[in-house]
Amino acid sequence: MLHKNLSVNDNGHLAIAGFDTVELAKKYKTPLYVLDTDSVYESCVKYKTLISKYFAEGSKPLFASKALSCTEIYRIAEKAGIGIDVVSGGEIYTAKKAGFPLKNAYFHGNNKTDADIAFALDCGVGCFVVDNTEEINALQAEAERRGISVRVMLRVSPGIDPHTHKAVVTGSVDSKFGIAIETGQALEAIKLISGCKNLLLEGLHCHIGSQIFEYDPFAEAAAVLIRFVSEVKAKLRISVNALNLGGGFGVRYTDEDPEFDYEAVLSKISASIKKSCAECGVEEPKIYFEPGRSIVAAAGLTLYTVGSFKTIKGYKSYVSIDGGMPDNPRYALYQSKYTCLIANKAGEEKSVCATVAGRCCESGDLIQEDVKLQHCERGDILAVLVTGAYNYSMASNYNRLPRPAMVAVGREGDRVIIKRESYEDLVRNDI
Ligand code: LLP
User: Fold this and answer.
1) What number of other Cβ atoms are within 10 A of residue 29's Cβ?
2) Model pTM?
3) From the CA of 358, how far away is ligand 1's center (Å)?
4) Which residue among the candidates 70, 196, 340, 361 is catalytic per the annotation?
């Protein structure tokens, strides 16, 4: 199957980490997010091991928790001994609730409000990835007021264009994120930080995009940063010792996507960094990566109950399910490809072609168009694979649909890690 945690069991049912998905749907109801937490943990450890194998001492992975933020995920990150990337007060609060040591958190965002800055400092967030000069000044003022020193990384845009969906490209010069190197503004920002007596420059950050399968965009971005490190050293006599290359490693959603060999990619990036450092005469910096999708996507799947299979004569067929764009907006937003199958008939041939439609009052509420599926009817369980990233974290209550529960499966059995929202939850804040 698509990933090694998926299989078809003796009943002909889809299983994840050995757990029968049809049984899970029966026990916990649908729609249901299922997360193989052992595989999340293993991915964290894999990144940690490979990064320390291929990069300078002190190099590390930070889980980009925008891909999936809930208390359980921060517990896993802590157990695996990796850091996290957080982008909001909500993510910080969730990590804090989980008991995650926030000194290992890196706070991102192109518009941290004064309240965000204060809250992050109250919570002891370890490092701010600063995005613009106004943020630098605001952070300096708040740190000074508190009489503390704060570590910062400067987010720069390296001007790299990876081959991926335009909505998830973030490293080009014309971007809402970071400060451009090319225009000389990044150098000015470093000068500004060095003059802030309460800010300590930990390094530079860039994130070029998401769902990238090649190693060379990362290597190119690193090369641009390393040239900038040598310019900073030459012009400002400041040595930059850490580079955070962001996230973005690709994940296999369908059979058409390539297999991604993380070790091969990381070792090639490492070789290229060594070469760039030698060429520029700079010492090899610590390297951080911020994988999000590649840690959680394949660990998750979503289960729905089929409500109807409708064929429009001469046109096409629609399978309607009891969820849709509120729990998975990625097709509506990016036309993202997914693998779908009928979990209780997983052993059977895929004999029909249908569009999987959600239950919202909106024709764009589709999960996938014209996909191969087993023949299905009301009551069958439809599984959408590889939904661990950017599904729950992007979910909404559109049409007043309660968000699904999330169930963890793994060595500790099956258990709810996020409760299903109730109707009462939906009106909790209405006055
Ligand atoms: N670091 C930074 C600063 C980021 O902005 C992101 C993703 C990551 C790390 C993690 O990237 P990953 O390893 O997950 O590719 N909602 C979109 C993805 C947006 C990604 C935004 N930033 C989607 O559903 O495809």
Assistant:
1) 14
2) 0.97
3) 25
4) 361
